[in-house]
Write the structure tokens for this entry.
Amino acid sequence: MPRIRINDIELNVLDEGQGPPLLLVHGFPLDHTMWRAQVDHFRGTHRVIAPDLRGFGQSDVTPGTITMQRHAEDLAHLLDALRVKEPVCLCGLSMGGYIAWQFIQMHHRRLSSLILCDTKAGADDEAGKKTRELVATRVLKEGPEFLAASMPEKLFSQTTRSERAAVVSETQAVIRRTKPEGIAAAARGMAVRPDVTSLLAAIEVPTLVIVGAEDAITPADGMQTMAAAIPGARFVSITGAGHMAPLEDPAAVNAAMEGFLRSDERVYG
Ligand code: MLT
């Protein structure tokens, strides 16, 4: 996969297929491989662009605090570097959704549509911010093993954990490979992200909201409320899936995305 220079760093980027651009933005503390089923499905009809964000996967790391705005700026520079001039469908999961909120505010003309998976519009409360700092401090001290061990219970539904052990262990392997400085910088960046709830009513692009019905991190009822605040948004709940719905039930998520993209491209394309 090519590494693309974005100002001060290089990002590792999957860029496959031809057609309307579909930009896939991964969650924390993962990399672009969480989208493998969507890449396989959509590269026949779309130009699928799936970067490892700054600090993750094979991309360069910037220590400190990397805000969601900074990640969104990286995405805009990445699209420039890849000469993507037409508006993109931005599909973000969880932290990828937090980044999408910033992209909407800074680059709304570059968006054709939005797909928000397992994410939320609210900011962290004080307890949440403290937990982020504990995670950042601990990962810098002892590495990501404690996250690889503890996160699957929150990331995946009970069904996935008991029936799809390979998906869980592959995700743990990604977390183990992620550099502590990248994890800490993103955790600190998420802690300072703003509440964007008041922006939802102003979203003008077609939007699809997808949630795993058993999502323990960004629960389905909160996402349904969020979807109801976005004008015309579609809401799809994936039975049997948790926070990592695109990995846990790729067929259902791909079908929801495909139906949305087809109707969106027919109306707006
Ligand atoms: C993610 O999946 O990106 C994280 O769960 C986001 C978060 O920790 O808020």
Q: What stands out?
A: The pocket of D-malate is lined by residues 27-28, 94-95, 190, 217, 243 (CB under 6 Å).
